[in-house]
Specification:
The chain is of the alpha/beta class. The protein contains twelve helices and nine strands. The chain folds into two domains: 27-143 and 302-314, Rossmann fold; 148-298, Rossmann fold, CATH 3.40.50.1370. The strands form two sheets. A five-stranded parallel β-sheet has the order 7-6-5-8-9. Strands 2-1-3-4 form a four-stranded parallel β-sheet, with helices on both faces. Helix 7 links the parallel strand 5 and strand 6 (195-199). The longest helix has 20 residues, at 295-314. It binds N-carbamoyl-L-aspartate. N-carbamoyl-L-aspartate binds next to helix 3 and helix 7.
């Protein structure tokens, strides 16, 4: 448990070359990223012209798993800061001819790269790259382990709307076992002093999750009235063995966010979801598009957060 991390934490200077997970960061370092992201909001929403903070820097995205938001968001973020950005098409690369992951990455780095943004199905893949490459490595999701920029943008969105993190009760609802977003949210939120409750079917909640400083409850209707924020996590069918819950209908009955259930929550409940959302499974369209939802604001905020991460990692530290 992160009991040493005070809810009164202050931003602290950034010293890391990589962003591999929120587990490795202190509360102060997380606050620094959030504050730098605030500085980038006007730029991310195009009220401000492009900056050249990262002029002459080169960023490569290296995605071995599908992505809609994260990859595009890193591209736009890098470009708005003046960097050159390129997408490495893993599916049509020499990986298919037997080249190893490390050799592939080393060859890309040899083209003069400053940062690699990597997504991989294997937990720890970005950490492996960080051991072998000199450039900055940003984890854009490694298996079910961490997705730090998603965790940061969720926390950033909560702070912008609720004005604070410390003292809030945040429910993480759904497939906790297979969700890298859950793990990054937990590390960040607990360090910043939130009360975090994870909620879902017992088969989708790891037995040892309490060790991360969270509470566990299998009944959404019991925790919902206590929550200031609920982050709805997708059922990660692609990472599951079969038989972890009876049926989608049963899941929706117990954990789906619909208007009737929302009526039992606080009127100002903030509803987040990292996307992609499965409408009718984790939440209904009326809830996803309703007044409590900040799902699209999360996407907008993701740009500012990724600009902050890129500028902290690759910008001149003067
Ligand atoms: C998440 C991911 O890929 O981990 N999506 C995202 O980055 N916005 C969540 C998910 O796939 O459910």
């Amino acid at each position: 448990m992160n009991t040493d991390q005070s809810a009164e934490a202050k931003p602290t200077p950034w010293t890391h070359r990589h962003l591999l997970g929120l587990e490795e960061l202190t509360a102060g370092e997380i606050l620094t990223i959030l504050d730098v992201a605030e500085d980038h909001v006007a730029l991310s929403t195009r009220q401000e012209k492009k900056r050249n903070t990262l002029q002459d820097k080169v960023v490569v995205t290296l995605f071995f798993e599908p992505s809609t938001r994260t990859r595009a968001s890193f591209h736009f973020a890098a470009r708005r800061l003046g960097a050159e950005v390129s997408d490495f098409a893993a599916a049509v690369s020499s990986l298919n001819k037997g080249e190893t992951f490390i050799d592939t990455a080393r060859n890309i780095e040899a083209m003069g790269i400053d940062a690699v943004v990597v997504r991989h199905s294997v937990p720890g893949a970005p950490h492996l790259l960080a051991q072998h490459l000199r450039c900055s490595i940003i984890n854009a999701g490694d298996g079910a382990h961490e997705h730090p920029t998603q965790g940061l943008l969720d926390i950033f969105t909560i702070r912008r709307i609720k004005g604070r993190i410390a003292g809030l009760t945040v429910g993480l609802v759904g497939d906790i076992a297979h969700s890298r977003v859950a793990r990054s949210n937990i590390h960040g939120l607990v360090k910043l002093g939130a009360r975090v409750i994870v909620c879902g079917p017992p088969t989708l909640i790891p037995a040892d999750i309490r060790a991360l400083g969270v509470e566990v409850d299998y009944h959404l209707d019991r925790i919902l009235p206590q929550c200031d924020v609920v982050n709805v996590l997708r059922i990660q069918f692609e990472r599951q063995r079969s038989g972890l819950f009876p049926s989608i209908q049963e899941y929706f009955r117990l954990y789906g966010m619909h208007a009737g259930r929302l009526a039992e929550a606080r009127p100002d409940l903030l509803l987040l979801a990292p996307g992609p959302i499965n409408r009718g499974v984790e939440l209904t369209p009326e809830v996803a598009d309703g007044p409590n939802s900040a799902i699209l604001q999360q996407v907008t905020n993701g740009l500012a957060v990724r600009m902050a991460v890129l500028s902290l990692l690759c910008g001149d530290r003067s």
